[in-house]
Design a protein that fits this description.
The protein is mainly alpha-helical. It is built from 5 helices and 3 strands, in the order ααβαβααβ.
């Protein structure tokens, strides 16, 4: 029933593939995951898989367009706040694991925020990972899945490729000019 409602809202892809940042993107694939994280101070840890420098979240609240439409202003504020609180210069970020879903409503907002806050301040392209292209959108656990992928990247020093990316969606800010670069091969 829920999948049918998402389909009616044109959020679900027809061919079962999340085509993140691709010109043929037409929605996402619903999927499921069970994810657990254990966070402790590094001085107490026996193993360290990654470092958590900060964590923030936002909510767009009520808006006329509806709950499925994110806010560019909210996305930008969240990125700025997160990097500021972590003491990181956005111009020095080389890779971001994005929430990109392959939807017409969300992807333009997220790419615009990434471009304005990070990529526009850099000389080289910002590498963009899109886990949903590989496993679908786990919805409620998607953020934890992205953290798990980031831990793998940190441990191996390799970024797994996005799949189903063939034709750049030049309507997305930063894609046409190459400032946002989807990862398409295993990348150091």
């Amino acid at each position: 029933r829920i999948s049918a409602q998402f389909r009616d809202l044109k959020m679900i892809t027809k061919d079962g593939k999340c085509k993140c940042l691709d010109a043929s993107a037409d929605g996402y694939v619903r999927s499921e995951a069970v994810v657990a994280t254990f966070i402790q101070r590094s001085r107490d840890a026996k193993r360290i898989y990654c470092y958590l420098l900060g964590c923030n979240s936002n909510s767009d609240g009520f808006k006329e367009e509806g709950i499925t439409f994110p806010s560019i202003k909210g996305q930008k504020q969240l990125l700025k706040l997160t990097y500021e609180n972590a003491g990181l210069d956005p111009a020095k970020i080389g890779y971001i694991e994005a929430h990109i879903t392959g939807t017409k409503a969300g992807d333009p907002v997220e790419t615009t925020a990434m471009y304005d806050v990070i990529a526009s301040k850099k000389d080289e392209p910002l590498l963009v990972g899109c886990l949903k292209s590989n496993i679908g959108h786990t919805e409620g656990s998607s953020g934890l899945c992205a953290i798990a992928k980031a831990c793998i990247v940190y441990q191996t020093s390799l970024i797994p490729p996005n799949i189903h990316y063939n034709t750049p969606n030049i309507e997305l800010k930063g894609i046409a000019d190459g400032k946002l670069k989807p990862v398409t091969t295993i990348t150091p």
